[in-house]
Design goal:
about 270 residues, alpha/beta, Rossmann fold, 7-stranded parallel beta sheet, 10 helices, about 55% helix, about 15% strand
Length: about 270
């Protein structure tokens, strides 16, 4: 997918990977970048900064991605401001909860943001994309969606589901003009990771599991990997190439991989 003259929507765009994606898309010549976030002030700030370098290319929108109606409003506003959406980046995510005893409302929040938001966006955009014969869906999942996340059951389960949904979209619509990419990084220097490091307890263990497995990348480095993957029309985007090795080991001998993960967990605790 070439980004020049395309209309892009990025959820979770006020910081971290989302902010870097929005900035990188504008640099690549996107006709419009909609920066959407629950943090409206942050989204407006990022859009203003982009417009200082690329006049009129960005707008900021407040959006609670867990709601179908909020996603509908987001797509409508993007279309009204720039035209039909070409690339939707379901990037917003939350790292919440611990084990199976995590309260139901926390499980629901993780499901709403990390999975249902992707489904909502697809429900709104896929019919239009099929009619046009083009469109691209970028899902920000996690290496946890290919492997697992020590410490947080809700995060691991919802990220696995996000990968599965992206795969389903690619299988179902890949021959009908709709492209799909799935971003699965490990450690990225974002507020989510920083908060985990400082939290103590299970959240700190989860953060250390990520940071000890490989290099912590900048959001900008991840955004560069995404742009390259879009240009190559690749499904899986792995800013940390070792994730592919880990996934291969998991597939080759699942029991051995599980035993290794238990040993890692014991070391971290």
């Amino acid at each position: 997918m070439e980004l020049e003259a395309k209309v892009c929507v990025v959820t979770g765009g006020a910081s971290g990977i989302g902010r870097a994606l929005a900035e990188r898309f504008a640099e690549a010549g996107a006709a419009g970048v909609v920066v959407a976030d629950l943090d409206e002030i942050g989204a407006l700030r990022v859009a203003a900064e982009i417009n200082e370098r690329h006049f009129g290319r960005a707008c900021g929108v407040a959006c609670d991605v867990g709601s179908l109606e909020a996603n509908r409003e987001l797509v409508d506003r993007a279309t009204a401001h720039f035209g039909p959406v070409d690339l939707f980046c379901a990037n917003a995510g939350v790292g919440v909860g611990t084990d199976e005893q995590t309260p139901a409302d926390v499980w629901e929040h993780a499901l709403d943001v990390n999975l249902r938001a992707h489904v909502h966006a697809a429900q709104l955009l896929v019919p239009e994309w099929l009619e046009r014969g083009s469109g691209w869906f970028l899902s920000t999942a996690s290496a946890a969606g290919l492997l697992t996340q020590i410490g947080s059951a809700p995060y691991s389960v919802t990220k696995h589901a996000a990968v599965a949904f992206a795969e389903w979209l690619a299988v179902t619509y890949g021959d009908r003009g709709i492209g799909v990419s799935c971003l699965c990084p490990m450690g990225v220097d974002t507020r989510l990771l920083q908060a985990g490091r400082a939290a103590g307890g299970v959240e700190e263990i989860a953060a250390r599991a990520v940071t000890t497995a490989g290099t912590v990348l900048s959001p900008e480095a991840v955004a560069d990997c995404v742009v390259e993957a879009l240009a190559d029309e690749r499904f899986l985007v792995l800013p940390h190439p070792e994730v592919a090795t880990f996934a291969q080991r998991r597939a080759q001998d699942h029991d051995r991989w599980l035993a290794g993960m238990r040993r890692l967990q014991a070391q971290l605790v």
